């Protein structure tokens, strides 16, 4: 009854019904189905991606995000090339297979600066390089791929056009994130995308559409997390959509559905989930479909300044300590620490 193939072909109505499902036994069955799909399709390894937040400067005005340009209380930093390379070195030393370079939309991170950085990392380490640098000129995406970048993360945030345009004012020419996802894929990147859930104005119907869209896009990576209001943003004081964001249980449900709809995808237990429910929530996310964790290697003095939303989960002890005993913690969950690059499989076995 819960065979994965039955889910990959799920209709809008059944995705919607699952989003509204509250009966504990049925939800447990969904989580078990997602966990077994995860085991069959991507195995027991949990891949670690070392996250480096390289700039908190942002020229955009997204209504949900604490980094928005109009937040004059936000503290801004931009790592130097040497600081970034030190983080990369720590990630390689800690035995991880991937570095993720993420930032606000910061034009000062020039095409050449990033291309040179990527070339350097690819030449001197075995790391896969993931970029998460927002909406950029096509030429940037082309150049960074040529420099050796492996993956790109760009969430489409919501497939509801009206809501998207309200929350994500464009900067001149409208930029179609869904078209960009396709373009990045055509350029040869492994591509990740996803949405937030619980945004004010978001509906169950539109989230069901989002999930089906991810399945159509056949994404290599999916990042979905609960919306967490930031007080210094326009959405800071609007109530979140409780129906969609009210509980961690809802987050697990979304992760489970993502797994079942795109069985081969790499899916993180997101920081937003850990922010709401700590390490227990991260472990639970791993047991209902997730297979990736992104430890934060941003230098401690900058980490707090990258405040997309308040009180972002980030282990006090630092990323190295956090990674050091993951072997044991994963073993308790019947999982292992992923070795190598942990790339997405394009074709299902
Ligand atoms: N600026 C880049 C990447 C950094 S933001 C970009 O836009 O792609 C990374 C993700 O954080 C965003 O895609 C968004 O989905 C999420 N995010 C932003 N504000 C958030 C909030 N208040 N609560 C939860 N997630 C948020």
Describe the fold and architecture.
- It is a single chain.
- This protein has helices at residues 4-8, 12-20, 24-42, 81-93, 111-124, 138-147, 161-167, 177-186, 204-217, 242-245, 248-261, 271-286, 300-303, 319-324, 326-332; strands at residues 45-55, 98-103, 128-132, 151-153, 190-193, 196-197, 221-222, 225-226, 292-293, 336-337.
- It is α/β, with parallel strands linked by helices and 349 residues long.
- Strand 3, helix 6 (138-147) and strand 4 form a beta-alpha-beta unit.
- It is globular, with a radius of gyration of 19 Å.
- S-adenosyl-L-homocysteine binds next to loops.
Short description:
It is built from 15 helices and ten strands. It is of the alpha/beta class and 349 residues long.
SSE blueprint and pairings:
Elements lengths: L3 H5 L3 H9 L3 H19 L2 E11 L25 H13 L4 E6 L7 H14 L3 E5 L5 H10 L3 E3 L7 H7 L9 H10 L3 E4 L2 E2 L6 H14 L3 E2 L2 E2 L15 H4 L2 H14 L9 H16 L5 E2 L6 H4 L15 H6 L1 H7 L3 E2 L12
Parallel strand pairs: 1-2, 1-9, 1-10, 2-3, 3-4, 4-5, 5-7, 6-8
The protein binds S-adenosyl-L-homocysteine.
Top keywords for this entry?
349 residues; alpha/beta; binds S-adenosyl-L-homocysteine
What is the average per-residue confidence, as pLDDT, rounded to a whole number? 92
Give the H and E element order. HHHEHEHEHEHHEEHEEHHHEHHHE
- The secondary-structure class comes to alpha/beta
Question: Fraction of residues in helices?
Answer: 40-55%
List the ligand species. S-adenosyl-L-homocysteine
Give the count of helical stretches. 15
Q: Using DSSP, what is the number of strands?
A: 10
How much strand? 5-15%
């Amino acid at each position: 009854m819960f065979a994965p193939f039955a889910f990959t072909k799920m209709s809008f109505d059944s995705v919607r019904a699952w989003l509204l499902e509250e009966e504990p036994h049925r939800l447990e069955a969904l989580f078990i189905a997602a966990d077994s799909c995860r085991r069959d399709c991507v195995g027991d390894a949990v891949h670690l991606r070392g996250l480096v937040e390289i700039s908190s400067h942002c020229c955009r005005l997204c209504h949900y995000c604490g980094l928005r340009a109009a937040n004059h209380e936000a503290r801004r930093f931009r790592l130097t090339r040497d600081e970034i390379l030190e983080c990369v070195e720590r990630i390689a030393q800690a035995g991880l297979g991937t570095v993720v370079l993420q930032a606000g939309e910061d034009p000062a991170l020039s095409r050449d600066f990033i291309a040179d950085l990527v070339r350097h990392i690819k030449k001197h380490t075995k790391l896969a390089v993931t970029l998460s640098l927002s909406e950029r000129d096509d030429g940037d995406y082309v150049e960074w791929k040529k420099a050796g970048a492996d993956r790109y993360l760009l969430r489409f945030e919501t497939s509801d056009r009206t809501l998207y345009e309200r929350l994500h004012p464009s900067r001149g020419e409208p930029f179609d994130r869904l078209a960009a996802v396709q373009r990045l894929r055509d350029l040869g990147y492994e591509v990740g995308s996803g949405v937030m859930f619980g945004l004010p104005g978001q509906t169950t119907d539109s989230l069901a559409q989002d999930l089906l869209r991810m399945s159509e896009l056949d994404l290599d990576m999916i990042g979905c997390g609960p919306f967490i209001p930031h007080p210094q943003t326009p959405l800071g004081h609007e109530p979140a959509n409780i129906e969609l964001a009210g509980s961690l249980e809802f987050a697990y449900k979304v992760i489970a559905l993502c797994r079942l709809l795109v069985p081969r995808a790499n899916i993180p237990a997101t920081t937003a989930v850990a922010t709401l429910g700590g390490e227990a929530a991260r472990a639970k996310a791993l047991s209902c479909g997730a297979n990736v964790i992104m430890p934060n290697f941003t230098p401690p003095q900058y980490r707090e300044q990258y405040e997309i939303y308040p009180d972002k989960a980030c282990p006090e002890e630092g990323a190295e300590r956090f990674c050091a005993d993951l072997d044991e913690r994963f073993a308790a969950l019947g999982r292992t620490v992923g070795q190598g690059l942990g790339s997405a499989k394009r074709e299902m076995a």
